[in-house]
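Complex 484.
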Amino acid sequence: MSIYNKYEAVIGLEIHIQLLTKSKMYSSDSAEYGGLPNTHVSVTSLGHPGTLPMVNKQAIEFAVKLGLAVHATIRYENQFARKNYFYADLPKGYQITQDKTPICNGGYITIKQKDGTEKNINITRIHMEEDAGKSLHDQDVYDTLVDLNRAGVPLLEMVSEPEIKNGEEAYAYLTEVRKLVRYLDICDGNMEEGSMRCDANVSVRLKGATEFGKKVEVKNMNSIRNVQRAIDYEFTRQIDLIEAGENIAGETRSFDAVKGSTFSLRSKENANDYRYFPEPDLQPVYVTEACINEVRKQLPELPNHLYKRYIRDFKLSDYDAGVITDTKAIAHYFNELTSHTDNYKAAANWLMVNIKGFLNENALDIERFPVKPKQIADLIAVIDEGKISHSVASQKVFPHLIKEPQKSALQIAQELNLIQESSADALQDWINQALAKYPEKITEYKGGKKNLVGLFMGEVMKLSGGKADPKTASKLVQETLDKK
Ligand code: ADP
Ligand code: MG
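Predicted structure with adenosine-5'-diphosphate bound:
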């Protein structure tokens, strides 16, 4: 047995969620991403003495929104606190955050495990705070440059209980959180650009042990995948140390994505004392029941709920329901599509195969897809009515529909002369011709070679230019042969 099997990991994640507000957390400066350096900075962002902070109402609503979505308890009286530390990208010398009174407590995120069962990861708290500026070390040969556009941008910090067991669960947890903040329209969830950031607290212990091991905090993972890699690396690194008889140092480490390893940034032994105290320049903010109800009304149907509803009511597979609820825009399209058709399975297939295929090939979002859900529902109806085959629909009508989205599926099928012939008269004509061509095969059929129906059907399809409705035609071919 490998030594690693004797141990288990204990993991808690701290996620920073950058909010999509127009202005900053405590000032009216623009919170928009990507402006020229130091253009979104008034005296407040620059931390000039005597300036006063003001709380961003939208940020509070976003915090409540996330809190409700994760079933947390929302706090009524919210106090802000100063967290003091010195850093070049922090002009005030402190960050305004929440200490003893986070806006949300409790709640959970549901993840799906490998075996298909669900697990709830409990959330300790969600609090509001502001971001720091950004130090740029690679823009100038000699100096570090500081961009303060980000200083003061609103953040929610969401802290999980140490209930995550491995890198895979961390991956699933982060994927759910990202999906959720995107559904809620409170954050773009982009880890590559840093608008969602995750610190992973990792410790290991012998299986069955009741006490936690010493934890290490890992930072600087710029993708969900890299969080998983960093955790997997830490798991073996820490076990190797313990097995070698060494102690785990309480420290902050950074992840090197190229090497796939972590390295020490700083020890926690001489950690800062932030000397938190209540922010004297801000009154407490009171979140009333009325405000909470107002926000609750704006909540969209959440991905997990949609996922279960699609499986229960539409009989979709786990996989299909997962793909369709992956983004709100896709789910929204599907909702509208299924309001126009009862053929849910076909609706899911058209969305996942044809539409997503087209979007991927053209690097488009579904918002830019020109064909309305109603038209796709009509296309499905045209197929279900036997007027065109599925392959003709996807190879000929669908591409045409994208080019001329103002037309209906039926209109296009008619214009392209693709409507299947299912009238017995027309079909009988082609069948008679097909049979006349191979008199000796009729004898063979009569002698027992029943699979010759295929040969005659092929001929019928050829004569009809592909328009013969195959179901009706094959029935008629057999009937005609049996009468001979
Ligand atoms: P700190 O004061 O060092 O920031 P916290 O108690 O605030 O520590 O916890 C930070 C995060 O670390 C939380 O997500 C928590 O679940 C997690 N955590 C706490 N103890 C451990 C541990 N022994 N191993 C792994 N994660 C832990
Ligand atoms: Mg912490």
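The longest strand covers residues 118-130.
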